[in-house]
Design brief:
Strand order of the largest sheet: 1-2
Distance between the termini: 41 Å
Radius of gyration: 21 Å
Shape: globular
Mean pLDDT: 85
Structural class: mainly alpha
Number of strands: 2
Low-confidence stretches: 357-368
Helix content: 40-55%
């Protein structure tokens, strides 16, 4: 009841500074969860997620708390459009890899664009896992009109391989949960690039299913120079990273604005979208290769493997076999196989998590 009262005060009517000062300690008490993983002395993100000042301003984090509040109301439960496309249990399993990923972590304070680099894993609480789970599933809901049956598993495999949902990672090759590189950030969020055109057009023409990302895109348009923290922070950064990563995959896969998409490459060979499972699989695999190497590089590497329209009259099984053979010889084949191998080492045949982590409220379960 106390939580409902607090959230109602926060979101149903404007909150004065004196009321916020009264509410603040009550909200902070909601975050006394122990760390699932990470150093319990580094609670920068665990504290931010329940900071009353953070959730007063328009942000994706504020939308999360609104959703959580509304979902707690019996009369709203049947109206919720949330769908569990990637189960929380799989995300929680993947997160247990984080302490063993030897990549620098970036600690981003609210109001600062620089951040502090650390070798220690910051505390991750159950509330943070809820937030990651909700955010990534909202992104999948946003693109649900365009997703084939394999896309959600492709996204999970990519994130599981590259960051294990460690949204605070900053390596020399990428930033955040989807490990966006500098070129990818520019493509998806710089206003003159076709990737950004695709992303904005899609979101603003799907305002209902992308409702939580409309505001995020509007706020992103006001940023001239993005910092790393703009793709990591609790308020908007992690959601921007997920949107950019999934959007980039869709752009590489089949966006009309991209003249060198995986679909355009297959079209060149005469392998057109026939809505078969094998077509979706090979299109997604090539798109992932583009995520790894860039669309221009993959297009240049593969285009001349077959002559124009040479696959058009072949059977589906023959076309799929021939293209798969070339993909398995490509420069990105190791990246694709790495995804599958990582998944096999993390889950058994029944889908049960093979990883384990102990609470870090006492002994630390992280590697320096």
């Amino acid at each position: 009841m106390r939580i409902l009262l607090i959230l109602a005060l926060l979101f149903i009517r404007p909150v004065s500074s004196s009321t916020r000062a009264f509410i603040a300690p009550q909200i902070q008490s909601m975050n006394q969860q122990s760390c699932i993983i990470g150093n319990p002395n580094i609670r920068i993100y665990a504290d931010q997620i329940v900071n009353p000042d953070s959730i007063q301003e328009d942000s994706f984090l504020k939308d999360y708390w609104k959703h959580k509040f509304l979902s707690s109301l019996p009369t709203y439960a049947h109206k919720s459009s949330f769908k569990d496309r990637i189960p929380q249990e799989r995300i929680a399993c993947s997160i247990q890899n984080i302490p063993f990923i030897e990549t620098t972590k970036l600690l981003c304070n609210e109001g600062s664009s620089l951040g502090i680099y650390s070798n220690d894993t910051p505390c991750i609480t159950q509330e943070m896992i809820h937030y990651i789970h909700w955010t990534i599933n909202e992104a999948l809901r946003c693109f649900s009109d365009d997703l084939d049956k394999y896309s959600k598993s492709v996204l999970y495999k990519k994130v599981h391989l590259e960051s294990s949902f460690g949204f605070f990672f900053k390596s020399k090759n990428g930033t955040g949960l989807t490990q966006l590189v500098g070129v990818a950030k520019e493509e998806m969020f710089h206003h003159k690039n076709s990737g950004n055109t695709y992303l904005e057009n899609y979101i603003f023409t799907h305002p209902q299913q992308c409702s939580h990302f409309v505001g995020l895109m509007e706020r992103s348009k006001k940023i001239n120079n993005f910092s790393n923290c703009d793709f990591i922070s609790m308020k908007d950064g992690m959601a921007r990273n997920i949107l950019g990563g999934l959007g980039l995959f869709m752009y590489y896969r089949s966006a009309p604005e991209n003249s060198r998409s995986a679909e355009k490459l297959l079209d060149y060979w005469g392998y057109h979208n026939n809505h078969s499972n094998t077509y979706y699989q090979i299109r997604n695999t090539i798109a992932l290769g583009m995520f790894n190497k860039g669309s221009n590089a993959v297009f240049a590497e593969l285009q001349n493997k077959f002559q124009k329209n040479s696959l058009k009259k072949m059977s589906e099984s023959k076309r799929f076999s021939m293209v798969s053979n070339q993909v398995n010889k490509s420069s990105f084949a190791g990246y694709i196989h790495g995804m599958e191998n990582r998944l096999k080492s993390s889950f058994d045949q029944n889908g049960q998590c093979l990883l384990s982590a102990k609470s870090t409220s006492g002994g630390l379960a992280y590697r320096h």
